[in-house]
Amino acid sequence: MLLNGGEYRGARILDEATLDLMSEPRIDENVSRQFFFYGNRGNWSMGFHLQPTDGDNPNGPHNIGWRGIGGTLVVVDRENDFYMLYMEQRRGGPRGAPFDNTTAQRVVYEAMAD
User: Fold this and answer.
1) Taking a C-beta distance cutoff of 8 angstroms, is the pair 67, 51 a contact?
2) Which of 3, 37, 76, 95 is 20 to 30 Å from 103 by CA-CA measure?
3) CA 82, 6, 81 angle in degrees (round to 5)?
4) pTM
5) Do 45 and 26 meet the contact criterion of CB atoms below 8 Å apart?
6) How many CB atoms lie within 10 A of CB 103?
7) Res. 55 pLDDT band, cuts 50 70 90
8) pLDDT for 19-42, tens place per residue?
């Protein structure tokens, strides 16, 4: 539904204009990004992270999504027409593990670029 402009299997769940509003940056530069999962880039909207999909362009385009405290990750990338669900159940993430939700997302984007 989020990838399809607010529609799911022919049923309108969210107005597309509402989804667009939910995908706009909502915090300004005065808010610290020290504890952002993805560093000093991106923003937050109404319920979603806005994470740049291009490391060279911190202002967009962005995917929208959410990272859970237990290591889960939901990414909806309308620009590249895909979504990703990553499930890992470890509070704070698996410290020192070779694979985590940040790595999972990076690997997907690298594969798309190739």
Assistant:
1) no
2) 3
3) 15
4) 0.79
5) yes
6) 12
7) low
8) 999 999 888 888 887 777 666 777
